[in-house]
Amino acid sequence: MSVIIFIIVLSILIFSHELGHFLAARSVRIRVDEFAIGFPPRLFSWKRGETTYALNLIPFGGYVKIFGENPDEESLTGPDASRSISNKSKWAQAWVLVAGILFNLLLAWLLIVLAYSTVGLPTARESVPEGYILTNDQLLIAGVAPDSPAALAELKPGDVVESVALPGQPVVENPTSIEVQKLVAEANNQIVTVAISRAGDQLVKEITPTVVGAEPPRLGIQMAEVGTLGLPIHKAITFGTSVTLNLIKETGKALALFLASLFQGDGDALSQVTGPVGLVGIVGGAARIGLGYLMSLTALISINLALLNLIPFPALDGGRVLFLAIEAVKGSPIKPKVANTVNVVGFSLLILLMVFVTVSDIFRLF
């Protein structure tokens, strides 16, 4: 079931991205020869007007075949050359390239707004708009300090604290963050029993808090009181817009830090990247928790996909925009053979990266 849900989510993300390219191309009168979800072999297709629409067997991708995207004699000087993207203005070409990114961001916003206005979304108590209340309050572990007692006990961000207890004392069910802090402060080198739920599984951890100098005992966790927030549609639009913009900002910061660590030669950076195999488990876990979690996770993946495509790397949309900028500066087109070769090399490197990440995902399963 997790695989099926993942394929559905991936198809929605790809469809949104390629739809952006498709509609943008049509808006500036560029011919679109094919709109496909998945990679060949082809399962079935149909033609409407001049465009062939196809569903292919391999679900990890998709594409829009835009006339003149890979310049050749027909697209440059043929009878339909005026409708080739190669012969459009730089602004028109840039609009077509960035439209896929914009549609992924639009999809994220739409999912978040729909989730708030229908099933509700997990929201921290301090972020709730005035006049609205949370339901299904939970205490969530928001962060785990490295080498802390919580880290040694394998607590993870996203775990829900169901109960805490000290030996010989009553169990505190559904505790608040203040109740946990109070109990840990009273531990006095005793084991704290923490019951958590993780992706539907119930786990019990026994943890001895550490004491450093005059500081109070600690488990080494950051906590957030989170519940489900439902909003009327008008409030969902305004609050959802704010949430989406904040997610874009924070995702951009995280991506920038990741790229910086790669350039600095951090060998552990790639090992922390999750590929298709890992995403199957993550998406499946979110679906088991609830539709709201799945919708918010899909929105976050869509934002990540959009920002990754902004990177000026060959074969990515950002790389193609960079080519346009170079052409605008030099006053003449980059030779098609050079552009096509660079894009093929870039695409090959991305495939190699995907293979590496997928193998890493598989090894993490064992």
Strand and helix map with partners:
Elements: H1 2-27, E1 32-48, E2 51-66, H2 73-77, H3 90-117, E3 121-124, E4 135-144, H4 149-152, E5 160-165, E6 172-173, H5 177-185, E7 192-198, E8 201-207, E9 221-229, H6 233-263, H7 276-289, H8 291-310, H9 317-330, H10 336-364
Helix pairs in contact: 1-3, 1-7, 3-6, 3-8, 3-9, 6-8, 7-8
Helix and strand element order: HEEHHEEHEEHEEEHHHHH
Distance between the termini: 20 Å
Share of residues in helices: 40-55%
Count of structural domains: 2
Estimated share of beta-strand residues:
15-25%
Work out the helix count.
10
What overall geometry do the principal axes of the alpha carbons give? elongated
List keywords for this structure.
single chain, 366 residues, alpha+beta, Pdz3 Domain, 2 domains, seven-stranded antiparallel sheet, two-stranded antiparallel sheet, 49% helix, elongated
